[in-house]
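Input sequence (84 aa), recorded before submission:
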Amino acid sequence: MAAEPPRLTVLSRDRCRLCDEMVAALRAPSAAFPFVVEVRDVDADPRLAARYGERVPVLLGGEEELCHYRLDAAAVNAWLAKFR
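Predicted structure, token format:
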């Protein structure tokens, strides 16, 4: 059985331009390494809303915060390298 690809989670909210930009950048075609992108609305989870407040988007690799506001490609690539 093949292992599941790594999962990146974008903590986002409605009408957030930076959130849309981060999701689009992550979903752009990438042949380097497969991964799954999950988008979660921080406002739908009171615990997330309390923890992150206005600091969205936040990109998580598992439980690790990789970046916020803007995509940090180097941090994402370093995190994904752990799965190669």
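Checked by second reader. The two ends are 17 Å apart (CA to CA).
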